[in-house]
Amino acid sequence: MRKYLLVAAFAALGAIARYLSGSIIIFDFPCGFPVNTLLINILGSFMLSLILVTAEDVWKLDIDIKRGIAVGFLGAFTTFSTFCRETVVMLGNHTPAAAGIYAASSILLGLLAAFLGYLIAGRINNRFRETRRTPDEREKELK
Q1: Are the CB atoms for 53 and 119 separated by under 8 Å?
Q2: Is the separation of the CB atoms in 32 and 90 below 8 Å?
Q3: Where are the alpha helices (DSSP H) in 29-134?
Q4: What is the pLDDT of residue 26?
């Protein structure tokens, strides 16, 4: 029961963060290019990788907290359905080039952000492990 409550609580926070960040007009592009959704989904991809990779080693997060953050908060913050709807709206408005650029950039930049989050988290984990090693362990490695 605890895991469901945590997911629900984090989802509420993620939905509020999504609503607030989605209401900020970053750029007003012609043809309704949805920059906000693009940036939100890229940030969410980055954060998901970063948090899940560092959650165990560095933060020692409980599995239910991890689920709350990943499924609840980031699941509500990012939105695949909005991405799809916005792409279809651009196609319906006869702007297929913008729709294609949006779809391709969402996927490619989302994957790139997730990979970057993964790399950064790996470095954080390595630094954390290094600081927890004893001087004797470090000396043995040098030999």
Answers
A1: no
A2: yes
A3: 35-57, 63-67, 75-77, 80-92, 96-132
A4: 67
The torsion angles phi and psi of 91, rounded to 5 degrees, stand at -65, -40
Q: Residue 57 above 90 pLDDT?
A: no
Residue entry with tokens 């988290």: 121
Specify whether the CB–CB gap between 13 and 73 falls below 8 A: yes
**108-124 per-position pLDDT tens digit:** 999 999 999 999 999 99
CA angle 12, 36, 64 (to 5 degrees): 30
pTM of the full structure: 0.84
Cβ 111 vs Cβ 45: under 8 Å: yes
Q: What is the DSSP letter of 94?
A: T
Contacts of 12 (CB under 8 A, 6+ apart): 72, 76
